[in-house]
Amino acid sequence: MEPYIPISFLNDFIFCPRSIYFHQLYGRSSESLYHSTDQSEGKAAHTAVDTKTYTTAKKVLQTIEIYSKTYGLGGKIDTFDTQTGVLTERKKKIKVIYEGYIYQLYAQYHCLVESGYKVNAMRLYSMDDNKIYPIVLPSEDKVRQSAFEALLRQIRTFDLSAPFAVNPNKCFRCIYRYLCDVAA
Known about the structure:
This protein is an alpha/beta fold.
C-alpha cells in the first residue's frame, strides 16, 4: 500500500503544519503526556463511537476503517447511516466550523464513495449542545473541493525547515509549543 495521509491530519495541518511533526515525536506515548484538557474531554465524549456502542442499529456503520486510493487518504468515519446515506462527524462542542472539520468530512466522503457507498448528505454534530450543521457535498461545491485537493498537495510537499510565521493566537494554544523551536 502506498503511504497515505491520515484523515485526522487535515484539521491538524490547517491549525499548524508543524504540529503533525511534533505529534509524531510522541509516537505511542500516553496521550496524557501531551493532550490538553479539551482534547481529553473530546476523546472521552467520543468513546461511544470509538467502542462502537453508540447504537446497535446495523444500518449505522461506526468507526470503520476507510481508504481512498485516488486521494491517498485513510482513517475512520464516526458514523454512516447506510439507509439514509448520511455521514456524520461528531465533535464534543462546535463553536466554529473550521475548514479542517469540513475537509475531514470530504476525505471520509471520498473514501466511502470509492468503497461503493452512496453518500447523500454530510453533517457535523456538536454533542454538547445537540446541534447539527449540514455540509454541502464535495460534488456540489467545486471551489471547496479544489481547496481540499490543494490542501492535500500542501501536506505532501510540506517542508518543516521552511520559513514559518508564528501566529500567537494559535501557538499559545498549541499543545506542542514547548517542543517548537520557532513558537516557544
